[in-house]
Specification:
The complex is a heterodimer of chains A (247) and B (215). Chain A contains 5 helices and 10 strands, in the order ααββαββββαββββα. Chain A is of the alpha+beta class and 247 residues long. Chain A is globular, with a radius of gyration of 22 Å. Chain B has 215 residues and is mainly α. Chain B has a two-stranded antiparallel ribbon. Classes of the chains: A alpha+beta (247), B mainly alpha (215).
Chain lengths: 247, 215
């Protein structure tokens, strides 16, 4: 067979594209339900993690609620789910599936956005959990932040698409996320947020009123992305936060 | 009777030492710099590359007589990309946690020049079994260097291995830190990988002077 002829090359390409295309299409549609389910469980785990429902022990890494029980636990701890549309609260029990990235970009274009809010309750204490979305060094970063009525952070969860392993990727490690607990988002009444700082001179993070946590060495841009993401979240949720604030 | 003939065994062993893809052929440097800041990532990347390279070499070897030579590079690229997507999708469905760790490396596997290099230089001209061994051998050679670099960068840069502190606590000043030792922050940024790779090349060539190129 002459494999150098143009007609052969064309036929080979067509056959190859068809074979590869159908294999991938078949695979994608066959696995889609399982992948969707995994993603749903992950979101529920992340939301619960932020409000402190997890299986962490003092020295452990990040341990979520196991996937086989997460759906039940989510229903138990998350009492209410809302979306904020033009400052109006609309109850929506699928709010956790809202894609925050789409909502924020629609808001930027002057359009309408559906911003999810989850109200969790643990041992009689309420947390208000806000989803976040922003930019790291290479790609998207996102997470959830649980706050109380005094605008003190109860817990956070960060994740990223492609930050550098060992550097920016460490934003999802406990040593970084734990520092946010107890930090106040307010500074004399205004929403200051919490910045990831290289100069706060507080490596043990004892000062909870300084609106800063210690940065990760070698991950400046990812850290700045986290600071900006928190600021942005406070900005878009401001009308809601003003309502629940008690101080 | 040995499991492999001497010639076949060399396909596995050569890339581990005197024909290493990173230190001798200087291929695959980009991912060696990018992902070796910690040991775990190095190991995960090595396993992924072993898988893609073993199967990819077999597929290319099976197709070697029907691939039109004019578009062979495109065909090779499609084979790698397809394999990587298949791996990624299956992991997402059945091993979601692992897939999250791996996701960063998927793009890096596709662009890994060792893979395309072995397809082009070996699998296109050799039988299936030998291509398979060659793929596994080169991926192992690549993995060994990645793991060595990852080991030193994580140990010296963060004082940990697999995320577990091994030199004491740098903030509470215990272990080695109590006598004034400090983590070297330089080790966790990518240029440090070049230095570690350079040291490996130096050690290797001073042990085997035949590897030194004529000036």
């Amino acid at each position: 067979m002459n494999t150098e002829k143009n007609s052969y090359t064309v036929i080979f390409s067509i056959v190859m594209v068809m074979v590869v295309g159908s294999v991938l299409a078949f695979l994608a549609s066959a696995l889609r339900p399982r992948i969707d389910e995994n993603e749903r469980f992950e979101k529920q785990q992340n939301i619960l993690y932020a409000m402190g429902i997890n299986e962490n022990t003092p020295d452990s890494g990040v341990n979520f609620i196991p996937t086989d029980v997460v759906e039940g636990e989510f229903g138990k701890y998350i009492k209410e789910q809302y979306v904020l549309v033009n400052g109006e609260m609309v109850a929506d029990d699928q709010a956790f599936l809202v894609d925050m990235k789409k909502q924020l970009s629609s808001l930027k274009d002057g359009g309408e956005a559906r911003l999810p809010i989850f109200i969790g309750e643990k041992e009689g204490k309420k947390s208000y959990i806000l989803p976040m979305h922003g930019k790291g060094l290479w790609d998207a970063i996102w997470g959830f932040m649980a706050v109380d009525e005094n605008m003190v952070i109860q817990g956070v969860y960060f994740d990223h698409k492609a930050e550098t392993a060992g550097l920016g990727a460490n934003i999802k490690m406990r040593f970084f996320m734990d520092d946010f607990q107890g930090e106040s988002l307010l500074n004399g009444g205004s929403y200051e947020g919490v910045v990831v700082s290289k100069t706060n001179n507080d490596p043990l993070n004892q000062d909870k009123e300084d609106n800063a946590v210690d940065a990760i060495a070698g991950a400046t841009i990812t850290g700045n992305g986290v600071s900006a993401m928190i600021k942005e979240t406070l900005k878009v949720y401001r009308p809601y936060l003003d309502n629940i604030r008690t101080n | 009777m040995a499991l492999l003939s001497k010639k076949d065994a060399n396909l596995i062993l050569d890339p581990l030492a005197d024909n290493n893809p990173i230190t001798i052929q200087v291929l695959g440097i980009c991912s060696a710099l990018a992902i070796t800041a910690e040991l775990k990532a190095s190991i995960v990347m090595s396993i992924s590359v072993i898988f893609v390279m073993g199967i990819g070499n077999v597929v290319i070897s099976l197709l070697r007589n029907v691939i039109p030579s004019k578009i062979r590079i495109i065909v090779q690229l499609i084979v790698v990309a397809t394999l990587v997507i298949v791996v990624d999708q299956v992991l997402k469905a059945y091993a979601y946690d692992l897939s999250k760790t791996l996701s960063v490396f998927v793009g890096l596997i596709i662009t890994n020049c060792i893979i395309m290099g072995r397809f082009e230089a070996f699998a296109l001209g050799n039988g299936v079994w030998r291509s398979f061994l060659d793929g596994i051998g080169n991926a192992l050679g690549y993995g060994v260097i990645l793991i060595i670099v990852g080991f030193f960068r994580e140990l010296l840069g963060s004082g940990t291995l697999f995320g577990i502190p091994v030199l004491g606590d740098p903030i509470a000043k215990t272990g080695l830190y109590s006598i004034g030792y400090e983590n070297n922050g330089f080790m966790i940024i990518p240029p440090a990988a070049l230095i570690v790779v350079g040291v490996i090349i130096w050690v290797q060539r001073s042990r085997n002077r035949a590897l030194i190129e004529e000036a």
